[in-house]
Amino acid sequence: MSKLFIRFLFVVMAAVMIVTACGTASVSPTAYVNPATQAKPTLIPETDVPTAEVPATDAPLPTEPAAAPGAISFSADILPILESRCVNCHGGNKTEKRLDLKSYESLMNGSEKGPVLVAGDAANSSLATLISNGKMPRRGPKLTPEQIELIIAWINAGALNN
């Protein structure tokens, strides 16, 4: 009887394992991701904070203005984006890295490391680079591609205070 009980127990355990393995049918299958081609987390300079949430892109920033100079308004187009995505950390009571994005003047003052944008040259503006590669904002929703394009076009058009 002992051998019969052990065999019965073995069959029950095997059945439980099979049912458990097959019981994941309610979970949607995921595509195979080759670890060799997956984006590696990078570190934000001077902070050692991983940024694996959004893979960086090696695509160059556009250098041609997307709109005619003056067509993009800082107060009507750019400031609302900064207020909705950036001011929580870079404005008000909190100004990380001493970067205040509440106004044109404070934006142009830059951060503790100096200017964050070069008027007319988004490719050499850290603001454009950080939002384009998804490193900023670190918390909260990322900027949409349209918002990023608008900021880059505004910088390339001369970053006017209009």
Mean of pLDDT: 77
Number of helices: 5
Low-confidence stretches: 24-33, 40-44, 46-55
Rg from Cα = 25 Å
Largest sheet: 2 strands, antiparallel
The computed structural class is mainly alpha
Question: What's the total number of strands?
Answer: 2
Q: Spell out the helices and strands N to C.
A: HHEEHHH
Helix content: 25-40%
Give, in spatial order, the strands making up the sheet with the most strands.
1-2
* Shape designation: rod-shaped
Give the termini distance in whole angstroms. Answer: 91 Å
Beta percentage is under 5%
Folded structure, characterized:
The structure is a single chain. This protein has a domain at 63-156. The chain has five helices and two strands; from the N terminus they run ααββααα. It has helices spanning 2-22, 74-85, 104-109, 126-132, 145-156, and strands at 90-91, 94-95. Helix 2 crosses helix 5 (145-156).
Helix-strand blueprint:
Layout: H1 2-22, H2 74-85, E1 90-91, E2 94-95, H3 104-109, H4 126-132, H5 145-156
Antiparallel strand pairs: 1-2
Helix pairs in contact: 2-5
Give keywords.
single chain, 162 residues, mainly alpha, two-stranded antiparallel sheet, 2% strand
Concise account of the structure shown:
The chain has 162 residues and is mostly helical.
